[in-house]
Amino acid sequence: MSLNVAMIGCGSISGIYLHNITKVFKEIELIGVCDLIRERAERAQKEYNVPNLYETMHDAFADPDVDIVLNLTRPYQHFEVTKAALEAGKSVYSEKPLGASLDEGIELVRIAKEKGLMLGGAPDTFMGAGIQTSRRLLDSGFIGEPVGAAAFFNCRGHESWHTDPDFYYQFGGGPMFDMGPYYITALINLLGGVSGVCGMVRTTFQERLITAEPHFGEIIKVNCPTYIHGSMRFDSGIIGSIWTTFDAYASQTPRIEIYGTEGSLSVPDPNCFGGPVSIWRPEDGHWKEFPLMFPYADNSRGLGLADFAKSIETGRCARSDWHQTLHVLEVMESFTTSSDTGKYIEITSKYNRTKPMDPAYKFGILD
User: Fold this and answer.
1) How far apart are CA 290 and CA 19, in angstroms?
2) Which domains are assigned to the chain?
3) Overall pTM surpassing 0.90 (yes/no)
4) What is the pLDDT, as a whole number, of residue 229?
């Protein structure tokens, strides 16, 4: 049995979802698409042979054949779209983040719980071969007891290459809300939930000049922090740090490293599904790369959606349900809250690691 999905939003991220839903994952079926720019939906429908093109998202929500709404709209639109879908009685899987603010996320969870619906979302890269292999090594004691972690994302922003970069600098944007979900989701899947954070943030440039077509020469007014540094205390007592910025031209920092009593673990880019994964132990005296022990090393976006659908069918917990996406959202927002108030912020949402992936299942089928 497969569950039917309606896709809301056919922008740049939709391409890999369209491919993987229709070509890779066997237990979900895309039955309709919708976009404010109708031509985008028409292209998606034609290229991937999708049965329905909905005039509005509300038409999709009213379709009794739709089991799950896939929300691929821009971050500041996530709340409006997800809320409307939930209120119409549909379970929702959303691209990251869950909402553009913690208040939005809390309200969406309230509606989902009130209506008995499933709610979850991206990122799902932690379910791929790289992070799952890292977790296997970590849980097997290859670096002893974890004591600390560090994560780094840096770039110079999106205005020099993205076709529509403005929203990256508006409410719900910035490097933490754009890339932080990948990093924090990976960290909590490896190390468990976060109990409290401290942060410092700044907005380095108040304006950005677009140098990519089709908006070449236009000025972006920046309305979000673009340099965020945060410290995290995990429930286990592990101390972690994260740095995200759109203000750095270049860097030689790693993506994620975890430090243990018997060695160190180098975790691959959490925006990707694959490797490499390396461990340093004192008896070796150098980094040793390990083979990936799980499937889904290529771009497998939609894996979380497939897992989400399987959880609806079986009644088990989804690996990317709202407990995870809300926790990540609270951690991200709390860095700015800490910076603004000068205080340590206790995290109120609770997160327990879900079970790891099962590599024994046929590719495209979830356990």
Assistant:
1) 29
2) 3-121 (3.40.50.720), 126-290 (3.30.360.10)
3) yes
4) 98
